[in-house]
Structures are given as structure tokens and as C-alpha cells.
Amino acid sequence: MSDAYVIEVCGRTAGIVARDSHDHGFNFFSAARPFNVMEGQCFSDPLAAERVARMLAKNGSLPRNRQLARRRPDTGPRRFG
Which percentage of the chain shows pLDDT scores above 90? Predict the structure, then answer.
């Protein structure tokens, strides 16, 4: 599996995800203003980040479902997916 992936939504780049140094998941780096709210979020895999980006593009906000949002063990950024 690669260490970084481009996340595209509706034909435009939302951002990239890169594997974190401790292999806990993938951190999101925004490439467009509508996705800035995802900046620094940690995802279990690139597909999880893409799903959240698509929800954000469609609904204009991040999911509110508490089951999607989890804290990392080090109490770092929120984790989706």
C-alpha cells in the first residue's frame, strides 16, 4: 500500500492523505477551501477520507454521527472512518 493518495471529489482535488509516521492511519491535507475543515484529520484508510470528503461536498458539513468520529489514542486530531 502506498504512503500517500490524492482524494478527488467531483473531478477536483479535495486534498491528499498521507500515512502517519506511527502507521496509525492517514492524515488529510486540504487542497481546496471547502475541505479545509478536514485538515489534520486522521482516517483509517484513504477510502474513509474520500467518503467524508464526498459527504462534505454533498452536504456542506462533516458527518455528525458520533460513531464516525473517534479520538486517537494520543488525543490528537479527530479520526473519521
Answer: 62
3-state secondary structure labels for all residues of 8-23: EECCEEEEEEEECCCC
Q: Examine residue 36 and state whether it is found in any structural domain, yes or no.
A: yes
Residue 28: closest CA among 5, 9, 1: 5
Question: What is the pLDDT at residue 23?
Answer: 77
In the predicted model, is pLDDT for residue 67 greater than 50? no
- In this structure, is residue 24 part of a structural domain? yes
Measure the CA–CA gap between 12 and 14, rounded to whole angstroms: 6
Contact 18, 4 (CB under 8 A): yes
**Calpha distance 2→40 (Å, rounded):** 19
- Count, in order, helices (H) and strands (E) of the chain: 1, 6
Report if residue 73 sits inside a domain: no
